[in-house]
Amino acid sequence: MNNKVRYYLGLPHFILGTSITCWAIALMGARNTLGIENKFIIIGPYRYSLNLQYIGDILILMGSTLFINSSMLFVPSILACIGFLLMPFPEEDWLKERYGVEYIEYYNPITRFI
């Protein structure tokens, strides 16, 4: 890939992904981010999307893969993105178990990713 193209595509994805992930972690707090039950968060962008950290992580991987332009990074990045797309399914069951009706009422009208 042309060097300029990879910079113009990769860097914005990386910056946007990092911004989303940092914002999501700041809103959710360290305990919730690590899966340690703390409290249920429905503020900021979490009012519209269930999985902001995964969205940010996927954008980070896409951006860094484009920016670095390494064939060795391509396959692991794709596998990690697939993992980020699949993780919400068991996580949603865990959240339903932990927060019950509160989570179910939040979950129903919200999109999983975007």
Which labels suit this protein?
single chain; 114 residues; mainly alpha; 6 helices; elongated
- How much of the sequence lies in strands comes to under 5%
For the CA atoms, what is the radius of gyration? 16 Å
Distance between the termini: 28 Å
- Name the shape in a single word: elongated
Query: What composes the largest sheet?
Result: none
- What is the average of the pLDDT values? 87
Low-confidence stretches: none
Classify the secondary structure makeup into a structural class: mainly alpha
Compressed to H and E, one letter per element, the order equals HHHHHH
Helix tally equals: 6
- What is the helix content? over 70%
The overall strand count is 0
Summarize this structure briefly:
The protein is 72% helix and 0% strand. It has 114 residues and is mainly alpha-helical.
Describe the protein's architecture and organization.
- There is one protein chain.
- The chain has helices at 3-28, 30-33, 52-68, 71-86, 88-99, 101-107.
- The protein is mainly α.
- Helix 3 runs antiparallel to helix 4 (71-86) and helix 5 crosses helix 6 (101-107).
- It is elongated.
- The mean pLDDT is 87.
Write the layout of secondary structure elements.
Blueprint: H1 3-28, H2 30-33, H3 52-68, H4 71-86, H5 88-99, H6 101-107
Helix pairs in contact: 1-3, 3-4, 5-6
